Amino acid sequence: MDCINVMNSTLSRRRLLGGLAAGGFAGLAGCASSADADGSFTIIPHMDPTGSGDSWGSWGGMTPYWTRVVEPLVWGSDDMQPEPWLASDWTATDDTTWVFELREGVTFHNGAEMTADDVVHSFEEDILAERGDFVYGWLHLEPGSVTKIDEYTVEFENTEPFSGFPGTIAHNMIDIQPPEADRRAGDIIGTGPFTFEEKTDGQQLRVERFADYWGGDVEPTELTFRAAEDVMTRTDLLESGEADIIFDPAKSRVASLRDRDDITLWSTQSSGSNFVSINLYREPTDDADLRRALNYAISQTEIVDTVLEGIGEPARGPISTVIDWAADDELPSYEHDRDTARELVERSSYDGKELSCLVKNDMDDGRDIVQILQSDFEKIGVDVDVEVLEDAAVSDRTDRGEFHLEVDGSQSNSPAADYIMWENFHTMGISNKDLYETEGTGLHNLGGEVDDLIEAGFQSTDPDEKREAYVDAQRRIMEEAVVIPLFYQEYTVAADANIDGFDLHPIDRLVEWRTLKT
Amino acid sequence: MNESNGGLEAALRRRYERLAGRYRSTRNSRAVAAFCASPLNLAGLVIVATVTIAAVLGPIVAPYDPASQDLANRLQGPSLAHPFGTDQLGRDVLSRLLHGARLSLGIAVAVTAIRLVLGTTIGLVAGYAGGWVDEFLMRLVDVQLAFPGLILALVIAGILGPSLRNVMIALAVVGWASYARIVRGSVLSTKERDFVRAAQLMGVSRFRIAIRHLLPNVASPVIVLATLNMGTVILGTAGLSFIGLGAQPPTPEWGTMLSAGRYHLRDAWWIANVPGVAIMLTVLGFNLLGDGLRDVLDPKHDTAIEKTA
Question: What range(s) does the ABC transmembrane type-1 domain occupy (chain B) (predicted)?
């Protein structure tokens, strides 16, 4: 009866409606975050964390990035130095030999202790035997080069002097698993703070806290990694509360996300950089004057301020400045100067024919960036035909050297970034080797002294010597305008504002989740 | 005797042609009246005419170069200087829309023409030749129709690589079968009619019979299908361009504009919505026009015309 009276009064109706509205908002607020008090979080990286075949087949369809199920011997510190992880220490016993001491008391998810046998098995049977030739060039190891010294000591024999070896294997893909693990079948047995539980290809995968983690306490009970490669979808999922943490939200929406009280944004410079690679062995880009003209024609600042919405740093060289031997200030400056650019075009052998410029269709902001470049080049009298193609189609064209320019980029997913120099600019690097061996050319390799400098930096164990050699190599690369630097990458992470305990890492794939909580 | 028969034949033919001409004239007048009586038909006609005029005159009347960038004025909302605003690179959206109209309509016309010629030829040959030729060609049609059109176009465009030319090839390859079917069906019934038999008895060549007697009789349904197809092709082109298989930058194609604009739906709604509405209206226009033409050209709808008359 009281209830009826209450409902019959106008004031009470308002109260009721107000209460319903408040309840509704509370309900929506509850829905707005999937981060539960019990410690489960939904995270969306910028690439699909699931996938068989060529993508994550070696890890049973689970990405080794971000998921923190498997671990390498070495990790990367925040200042991009190799850091002990499953290995507690390492020493170089000669130019090509490394001895790694394993951390004792590390247990796999099946309860077994990690020993030297597991390390030898992982390298010899999984990494070197299964993952193809590119691993030899990357790690500078060959089958049979990893041997057990004792239960907790392993020796690695590099194919040539390689001072960056510990930093190079500080990579999620160079993981240690016991022989019982059947990677291809999805039976992943790692040592990480989370255990692999389940996945649905193209949708999501779930990991759970590993109570016996060697590194100590793990706060989250469960992490779900969802697939949403489309940047708008990813951002929508965060805004709707279906995700707690997303990597790289849409740049066009970063400003509005910053204005929201319920969302936090973090940004940091990453180990990646974007540049236009120039084919040095095809007319007319074989002419250094034309290449320098193209460098003078563009404004990196304009690209960063417009298309990138300020997320990134204008670049002067091809190597991100978070890498300790990057040479930014020491490189020749091609300040935006159309007059100089036009003069150089006049002086060059450019005959008015269109240059072909390739860009991968999955490159963030690639279409807009390439159109700005195209417009800038047109203003100095250089016509460019843009082709936005699939990754495989771009590789096919670049492998055959059938292009002039490629909007490209490179990123190191391990603290040792030596391979960026080697693979891109050394004659025997992956970009140049095939064309050099078949036609005596290459793509972005100046050869001669630059090759010598890259080799010196690659092999030197003295950090100062290494830096000096690499800086000199970068200077020559920029003097000859082998690339047109665009920007040093920054990455952004947007998260529910209630989340605490998240630290950015220059390598986004090395972020830790162990201290994540609400 | 022969001369006398010749004179009679000529007189009869003249009378037949007078009657036929009067019938055609009356029928055409009625058809036009019936078409104009429907506001929807007129709306379709007006939309298509507007888009056609935009396609023809667009590049002349466009206020700016569609590729000209003005990064300092990017993402500007509609204004007098830029009635449809500017895009993410500071380009005038109206100018891009007008240039895009020529592309979209040009592709639609070209693809529809290829489909029409290919499908009509195959249908005509199949229906008139019959036998194993008919069987073979119709199985080809069945195979083509067994694939979902847009998916097959996507596969073809994906294999050929992104470009407008390849999108045209992909869309043309997948859309001819319906023409072949319709034409074959019409030919099968028409070739049994007396005037075709008479022509055969008079020794008229098979090619001439096909062109002079059969083709005009299957024109109406083909024209209707072509009109309806224009909308489908515009949508298909925009769809393939949206996912990156069509126009290459900086070509102002409507689907590409829509795709670029989706990243700015919240802060610059006009970039995606202007080409989106243009696509919607154009497709709607062709569909309304096609429906209207079907109503007045389809012989089964003669009664409707007569009622209107």
Answer: 101-290
